[in-house]
Design brief:
Blueprint lengths: L3 H34 L9 H31 L4 H20 L6 H32 L3 H23 L7 H29 L3 H18 L1
Helix pairs in contact: 2-7, 3-4, 3-6, 4-5, 4-7, 5-6
Length: 223
C-alpha cells in the first residue's frame, strides 16, 4: 500500500512528464508550421539586403556603361559636324592599321587584340554611315554614290572575315593587313575629298545639324 508521500511524488512525476511532453509537441508543431509556411522558393530572412545589393550592382553597371558611352561619343562629337566626326574616325582607324603593320609574327596576342579593336572601330563607323549618311545621300538623289560607298563596306567585311580566319603568325598576315588598309584609305579619301563636301554644300543648316545629331546618337549606342 502506497504512503501519502509516495502518492504525491508519483503525481508530481506524472504531471512533469505530461508538461514536458506537451511542451515538446508544441515546439515541434510551431517549427513544423514555420517550415510549411516557408516554401521551397522562399527568399529567406536575408533576401532584402541581398536583393538590394544586387539591384544596386546592376544600376552601377548601367551607369558606368552609359558614362563610358557618353565620354567616348563626347570625344567624337567634339570634332564638329557629321563629316568632321567621320573624318576623325577614319584617322583613328588608319592609326590602328599602322599599329598592326608595326608588329611581327612573334606578337600574335597583340595582333589579335588590335584586330578586335579594328573590328569595333569599323563596325561603329559603318553603322553610322549606313544608317544615316548613305540614306541621306539617296534622299538627295545621290544614290549612285551611296551604293558605291556601301559596296566598299562589303569588301571591308570580307577582309575582316579573312583576317579572322588567318593565324596571327601567318607569313602573309602583314600583306593582308596592308591591302585592307589601302582599301579603307581610298574609301575614306573618296568620302572626305569628293562625296561628302559636295553633299554638305547642298544641305541647309537645319539639315546639317539634324544629320550631325543622328550620327552622334547612333555612335553613342554603338560605343
Amino acid at each position: 500500500m502506497a504512503t501519502r508521500t509516495q502518492s504525491r511524488t508519483s503525481n508530481r512525476s506524472t504531471t512533469s512528464r505530461s508538461r514536458s511532453s506537451g511542451s515538446g509537441s508544441s515546439g515541434n508543431s510551431n517549427r513544423s508550421s514555420s517550415s510549411e509556411n516557408r516554401s521551397a522558393f522562399s527568399w529567406g530572412d536575408n533576401a532584402g539586403p541581398l536583393l538590394g545589393a544586387a539591384l544596386a550592382g546592376v544600376a552601377l553597371g548601367f551607369a558606368a556603361n552609359f558614362g563610358r558611352k557618353a565620354v567616348m561619343q563626347g570625344m567624337a562629337s567634339a570634332a564638329g559636324d557629321w563629316d568632321e566626326i567621320l573624318a576623325a574616325e577614319h584617322d583613328a582607324t588608319l592609326a590602328i592599321f599602322d599599329k598592326m603593320l608595326a608588329t611581327d609574327e612573334t606578337q600574335t596576342f597583340k595582333r589579335k587584340m588590335l584586330l578586335t579593336k579594328l573590328c569595333y572601330s569599323l563596325d561603329k563607323h559603318a553603322y553610322e554611315e549606313e544608317m544615316v549618311i548613305y540614306p541621306a545621300l539617296r534622299g538627295a538623289n545621290e544614290a549612285a554614290d551611296a551604293d558605291h560607298l556601301e559596296h566598299d563596306h562589303g569588301y571591308v567585311k570580307t577582309f575582316i572575315y579573312e583576317l579572322g580566319q588567318m593565324p596571327a603568325d601567318a607569313p602573309n598576315w602583314l600583306e593582308k593587313v596592308r591591302e585592307f588598309r589601302e582599301l579603307v584609305s581610298r574609301h575614306a579619301h573618296e568620302e572626305e575629298e569628293q562625296i561628302f563636301p559636295r553633299f554638305k554644300d547642298e544641305l541647309t543648316e537645319e539639315q546639317n545639324d539634324r544629320i550631325t545629331g543622328m550620327v552622334n546618337r547612333d555612335g553613342f549606342w554603338m560605343s
